[in-house]
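Technical annex B. To support the medicinal chemistry partners, we prepared a structural model of the target in complex with FE2/S2 (inorganic) cluster, based solely on the information shown next.
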Amino acid sequence: MSAEGPKPPSEAELAEMDRDELLKLGGQLDGVEIVEYPEPWPVKDTRAERRAQRRVAFWFALSALAGLAFVVVMAWPKWWEYKDPSDPSGHATYSLYTPALGVTLGLAVLSLGIGVILYTKKFVPHEVAVQQRSDGPSAEVDRATILAHLADAGTRNGIARRSLIKRTAGASAGALGLAVAALPIASFIKDPWKDSDNENGLWHTGWQPKFPGEKVYLRRNTGNLEEDVKKGVALVKAEDLDAGAMETVFPYRESEKGDEKALSEALMRVDNPVMLIRLRPTDAARVVKRKGQEDYNFGDYYAYTKICSHVGCPTSLYEQRTNRILCPCHQSQFDALHYAKPIFGPATRPLAQLPITVDEEGYLIAKGDFNEAIGPAFWERKS
Ligand code: FES
């Protein structure tokens, strides 16, 4: 408040004053000179005013619709169920799930913002005032006058009679609030265990047999898919690897024979690559097996997932001299002689081991899927 301003009114005088008087007094007490204070729409209910009103309402309505669309996308997970890439129509829908969430929520927030800005530009009085700067806290009289000022701005912009804008703005804020509330609530009502007992669930990989007794072979990546389709894939026999060698293998099942798409997908699926290691006999004699996995190896052959237990990079490096498996991402190291348990770096869990054996023709096959989820930790995982 300016020291040279008019004398502040008494409490009784203040209570008697109407809004205009308070406005005037507030300006004087604060040393504010209002240079311009035009009514945004001096002539009421013109076509231009109604047009401006509709434009504002349009953005609020769009925001409300986008907010509701977001809630609908969240609430109907059935539409977006995972479909693998072999199902062109289903996979396309599934791949739209995240973009649909982002677009609807983004549109809701953006439209609400545009609506608010447009409303401010079109309906809030644009006064030009000059005010002297003052220090210290505001007095009661200043607070009363500023409230009068704000109330006056509310009256002048005509919000009370703009029911279209009020309704659409309310709907927009409500829908957006619903969308924001839906985010944390949805994570509590979605059942992560539902339909997870299949090869596409987090607990399983492409090594899981599709039916009891299905033989899943260890397959090489020859780099020549055409040949694989025409002449058959290259399977691995127990005598194929030299002692101390390592090879990356993928699952193969008879049903994929000659099927270019299935053969290609088996190579590309992220949880399929397995590191097949043939230990040197002297090293094999020093192996320490994990409890419950004593028969997971076949002779000197050990198969570990290539997906790092830290954050899922491919652990592609095997150092024969030390029997260490290295992950290039954050330098975790795993001991191949000690059920691939981590011995250096940020990883805290061993690499999952694939149980393997040979069939009657000498081909290496998986005895089943991994006995645990591979790769990095996730919420439902206990260890
Ligand atoms: S992902 Fe392997 S160490 Fe981080």
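Notes passed to the chemistry partners:
Residues 308, 310-313, 327, 329-330, 332, 345-347 surround FE2/S2 (inorganic) cluster (CB under 6 Å).
The chain has ten helices and twelve strands.
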